[in-house]
Amino acid sequence: MSDQFPKEYHASSLIESGRKLAVITGSGIDAEAGLPTFRGEKGYYEDQEASYLASMEALQNEPIRQWQWYLKRFVSYHDTSPAQSHRLLAAMEEKLEEQFLGLITQNVSGLHRKAGSLKVLEIHGSIREMRNMKTRELRHLPETWVENPPSEDELQGWRPNVCFIGESYEDYPLEESIQACRNCEILLVIGTAGIIHTPVWLAQEARDSGALVINVNPHPGEVDQVAQHSFVGTALDYFNLDENRWWEEI
């Protein structure tokens, strides 16, 4: 498949084109850094308890237990380094400058920011933040919590700033993501199965606005129905189509 994928849709060609680019990423790209995906074999949500703890129901009924589950992920993600693909997307942003409209991610890991991406739209929130349930004030989770977990009293009145199952996008940057998709000329979708429908209709918004949609995923998914071109492989497989290693110039 890789030798048949048109060169004009390789990452280097997208940069050279100078066209406005937006990117959507799902848990497939974080899998390259060793984090579990959410669906499929060994995915977070294949475990019924995890599905419950990631829900609005758990927030309402067992908020401290929910916090403790998310704090374990906070510690795990804190010690996880970005994969090469995260760094290459940051390099694309640097190359394209103002023509790069945004990196829309379903991931809460913070790995895109760790890799150096700046225009990151975390539509499912961030594991690194907490939100006050009355005032909606956002705070970064203290680094000290990595070694010394907080007491239950410290968690009272706060929740992880992560979009739970059954929650609306009201407190997350969905509108900015829609605008990036409507204004781009190329949308690159990486590592999302589209089971959660948001990336699918964001891709449809881009295509309806005249953008070229390129989907990168090793498995068939719902985004394939929207994309004009699909590359069967991981993000790293896609970037390795470029033999000239353009990112080494940065």
The overall pLDDT average reads 93
**Total DSSP E strands:** 9
Kindly provide the radius of gyration, computed on alpha-carbon positions and rounded to a whole number of angstroms: 18 Å
H and E order: HEHHHHHEHEEEHEHEHEEH
Describe this structure in words.
Strand 4 (125-132) and strand 5 (138-140) form a beta hairpin. The radius of gyration is 18 Å and the shape is globular. The chain has eleven helices and nine strands. The two termini are 29 Å apart. The chain has two domains: 1-35 and 82-124 and 168-250, Rossmann fold (3-Layer(aba) Sandwich); 36-79 and 127-162, SIR2/SIRT2 'Small Domain' (2-Layer Sandwich), CATH 3.30.1600. Helices cover 35% and strands 18% of the residues. The longest helix is centred in the N-terminal third of the chain and has 16 residues, at 63-78. A six-stranded parallel sheet has the order 3-2-1-7-8-9, sandwiched between helices. Strands 5-4-6 form a three-stranded antiparallel sheet, covered by helices on one side.
Please tag this protein with its features.
single chain; 250 residues; alpha/beta; Rossmann fold; SIR2/SIRT2 'Small Domain'; 2 domains; 6-stranded parallel beta sheet; 3-stranded antiparallel beta sheet; 18% strand; globular
